[in-house]
Amino acid sequence: MVRCGADRIAEYEKKLKGKRVGLLTNQSGQDSKGTSTIHLLMKSCELTALFGPEHGVSGKGDAGQHLEDGVDPETGLPVYSLYGEHRHFTEEMLAAFDVLVYDIQDVGARFYTYISTLHNALEDCARAGKQVLVLDRPNPLGGRIVEGGLLKEGYESFVGCYPLPIRYGLTAGELALMMNEEQKIGCDLKVAACQGWRRDSLFPDWGWEWHAPSVALTSFESALLYPGTCLFEGVNLSEGRGTEAPFRIIGADYVDGEQLCHAFEKCHLPGVKAEPVHFTPTCSKYEGIACQGLRLHVTDVDAIRPVTIGVVLLDLVRNLYPDHYALRPPHREGGKPGLALLSGGEGLLGNWDREEILGTYQKECAAFLERKARFHLYT
Question: Phi and psi (nearest 5°) for 297?
Fold first, then answer.
């Protein structure tokens, strides 16, 4: 049976006793019985404040929505947003606790912003002399396979805060240890490790019910494809937001679904099948506009390589529809294109060769596998 760090809170009661505790969490913070970490900590220590990442403590905020501070209606605790006006802890926030507990389910993709919030927390707590306890959780995408190119210098952002490949094969606890040591952050950091999880274990092996860690990742299948199909957030195609299958549906109003699906199937990529689809997003890109594209179906969770799928699909669309395919503009004047920030560099901009890109990714991942091994907490 797989148990997460939240199941081990009782083991840390003595270390938390007599200290004011802040909790950085969202709706995914709960033990294996479904009890929220908020309630677990309220029973065992003095919980003084709640902090929320993107989507908020409740997990109900939309992608990219800036949230306001407030008060938790159930507990009366102050709630501070780390995805609103401030993405770093302010002096007021830091004054509210002695120990920060982090408990959020991650999905193992570099551009998932929870790890940027974790990185900022380590820096801010180190500066203020605060302790951090990470209640670790398994990586639903496993801990052995890594994919995608490393984030390049100069392309750091909130969707890429650290030189990792897109699919990095670490838990949040392992990543915290890595960032703290490699960057010499100097945070007083402890990790409550999971029990019963192995690196070759993906989510379907755990026997857990899927609880969406954010509003669009409504299924494990979407989360597994996310490291590749999230790249479409940077171009003028829908990544399926506003449909019943976000990050599994890719398309636009200029795409011929049959044509794209046929071209994709000819690539014979392992672990995935595709079918043509007609769809009309209810929000996000192409809201209310009839589109065509394809819907991806995972057939083998071990064989599938989502980043390769994303790169292949980008290559197919730009070649099939050269008069329509385009990058989305930067979020701010003078900024870098979204696709560059998501992919971690300029490799997918302009003219590029698919096999050359994937070959570079493979070399960079091989080096990263060696680099990350000494931070492993699990076999």
Answer: -125, 125
pLDDT per residue over 216-235, tens digit each? 999 999 999 999 999 999 99
Q: How many CB atoms lie within 10 A of CB 374?
A: 9
**Maximum distance among all Cα pairs of the chain, rounded to whole angstroms:** 64
pTM of the model: 0.96
Instruction: Report CA-CA distances (Å) from 375 to 116, 177, 268.
Output: 18, 7, 35
Structural contact between residues 286 and 252, judged by C-beta atoms closer than 8 angstroms:
yes
Assigned token pair, 117: 């919030």
Place of tokens 């210098």: 153
d(CA 94, CA 235): 38
Residue 266 has pLDDT above 80, yes or no: yes
pLDDT per position as a tens digit, 16-64 = 999 999 999 999 999 999 999 999 999 999 999 999 999 999 877 777 6
Helix (H) or strand (E) holding 42: helix 37-44
Residue 252 above 90 pLDDT?
yes
**Burial profile 2-29: b = 16 or more Cβ within 10 angstroms, e = fewer:** bbbbbbbbeebeeebeeebbbbbbbbbb
Do residues 347 and 360 touch, judged by C-beta distance below 8 A?
yes
Confidence of residue 284 (pLDDT cuts 50, 70, 90): very high
Q: Is the predicted pLDDT of residue 366 greater than 90, yes or no?
A: yes
Are 110 and 307 within 8 A, CB to CB? no
Q: Do residues 8 and 84 make contact, with C-beta atoms less than 8 angstroms apart? A: no
pLDDT value at residue 354: 98
Q: In what order do the strands lie in the sheet with 249-252?
A: 249-252, 291-298, 272-279
Model confidence at 332: pLDDT above 90: no
Give how far Cα 95 sits from Cα of 26, 47, 259, 344, Å: 21, 13, 58, 35
Is residue 170 within 8 Å of residue 108, measured between CB atoms? yes
Concatenated DSSP letters for 143-194? SS--BSPPPPTT--BTTB-SS--SB----HHHHHHHHHHHTT---EEEEE--
- From the list 143, 139, 135, the residue with the least C-alpha distance to 190 is 135
Q: From CA 330, how far away is CA 234, in angstroms rounded?
A: 9
